[in-house]
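Thread amino acids onto this structure.
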């Protein structure tokens, strides 16, 4: 199964965040709850945890502005 990880809302009135840093590389195996990225909003820097364990495919680059709710990576749980 492939899970789409989406940008969660960091707070009211925030509509987009910036990918500050990926903490994993494309194709890495990640564990559930492992931090995979740091995102910056107007008010804070947050870590995005992996929602499941599996192989990650990145869908955004560092520095990209991503809308809240947009897909930032895929995790393949079958690998």
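Threaded sequence (79 positions):
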């Amino acid at each position: 199964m492939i899970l789409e990880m989406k940008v969660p809302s960091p707070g009211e009135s925030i509509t987009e965040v910036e990918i500050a840093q990926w903490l994993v590389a494309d194709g890495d195996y990640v564990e559930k709850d492992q931090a995979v990225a740091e995102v910056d909003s107007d008010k804070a820097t947050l870590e995005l945890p992996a929602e499941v364990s599996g192989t990650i495919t990145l869908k955004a680059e560092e520095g990209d502005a991503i809308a809240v709710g947009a897909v930032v990576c895929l995790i393949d749980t079958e690998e």
